[in-house]
Amino acid sequence: MSKVELFDEFPGVSAKQWKQKIQFDLKGADYNETLIWESLEGINVKPFYHAEDLGELKTFYLPEKHNWKIGQSIYAGDAKLANKKAIDSPNRGAESLVFTVPDKKLDVKTLLANIDLKSTTLHFNFQFLAAESIKELLTFLEEQNTTAHLNIDIIGNLARTGNWFHNLEEDHTILEEIYSATENQKWASTFSADLSLYQNAGANMVQQLAYGLAHANEYLNHFNTNSEHTKREFPITFKVSVGSNYFFEIAKLRALRWLWNTIAPAHGFNADCHILATPSKRNKTLYDYNVNMLRTTSECMSAILGGADTICNMPYDAVYHKDNEFADRIARNQLLLLKEESYLAQASKLSEGAYYIESLTQQLAQKALDLFKQIENSGGFLSELKKGTIQRKIKESASKEQQLFDSGEITAVGTNKYQNASDKMKADVELYPFVKIKPRKTILVPIIERRLSEELEQKRLDDE
User: Fold this and answer.
1) Model confidence pLDDT, tens digit, residues 425-440
2) What is the arithmetic mean of pLDDT over 263-283?
3) Do 390 and 447 contact (CB within 8 A), yes or no?
4) Staple 192 to which of 80, 151, 157, 429, CB 3.0 to 4.6 Å?
């Protein structure tokens, strides 16, 4: 008996035939004006995609056994309190611990005591740069059979604060010293490039990708010219913020890994990278804060399908509340539900071959590569940062997005549309939820993160 496929009796339909049917149903309305819209990245999005759209498109595939881990962020200002949370979190579903370390008074043994380091991946966000403290951490971890990402990003600190940790020469010297200590340790990675800063400041996705690549390329250029480093391993962590444009964000993460796998080998380095994804701060709101849970769920799904390696969710009340156990548990449980109840444990490859996503990935990658080349031809990322070009371009993009938000074309339910007049927040605000302005001397203009709803929320608070 011959095998009969389910849809064999139906004839194939070409893209041309689909378009003709749509045009007929529009009853004279213009196809392009009615159904095609342009994204902030300058990409025209069609109403449907077809196998013909793939054509000769190249694509990038994740490793066959790629998986993602649930991250838990922990502030390590107090080593004992941080350790208590770090011990508890894996019991509640966390698979990676993301420590933010504020200063070099780091009590490593207290912080990491009684944690199952063999089965828990560690991330560190150091708010300082000191070789002695970080090397002490490495010495402690060396015999723990763990995986650690140091996520050191001196350029990211410069972009965020407007200053080096110390100065250009000293920062690079310390970075080289730490890299030398980890160069032959397969369990440890040194570098990070923080793309989340650009997203949260209002950069569009092409800018995020291009600036992130140019940012990381500064490290490649520096260590490629340093003859002392002969080992061609360059594991790097890309910190990425994921916004609410669901399919575009999936394509953004796929394009990032694809582009890195193109650029790093051109320098003679191994192209391994780790993507640490978090929800964007930019679209989070103070009012009707429960909607933030819907936003972060969508954003975490984009991160999963885009191929992130570690996903660290944002608590729904992070805008205005200090860390608290309830919000942390909700954020972690969102990821647990996606992983275990929604069967997204190994879903990273589901987006491969999807006509729309493949097309977006290709277009984002190409546009980002073109912008990356422009930056390199202009002297590189640091040069453009010092001239203020990067800051100006992000500000222009942020202003365009802000206008769309203010006009209601970008919707935040409960904030710029469908406001609840009885919603009062002034008594619940524990953290200042707006941009803090601290006049200080900097060597360049810092890139400032700003939420879309800040001006509107300030007015509502004043009117309460």
Assistant:
1) 999 999 999 998 888 8
2) 91
3) yes
4) 151
Contact status, residue 63 vs residue 352, Cβ threshold 8 Å: no
CB 98 within 8 A of CB 278: no
Given a contact cutoff of 8 angstroms between Cβ atoms, the answer to whether 381 and 390 are in contact is yes
Residue type, 92: R
Alpha-carbon distance values, 193 to 23, 58, 98, 156, 431 (Å): 46, 26, 16, 7, 27
User: 340-392: per-residue pLDDT in tens?
Assistant: 999 999 888 899 999 999 999 999 999 999 999 999 999 999 999 999 999 99
**Token couple for 35:** 């159904």
Residue 279 backbone dihedrals phi, psi, to 5 degrees: -65, 150
How far, in Å, CA of 334 to CA of 321, rounded? 19
Distance CA 85, CA 80 (A): 9
**Nearest to 218, CA basis, from 391, 382, 370:** 382
* Structure-token pair, residue 173: 């010297």
CA dist list (Å): 75 to 79, 83, 98: 9, 10, 8
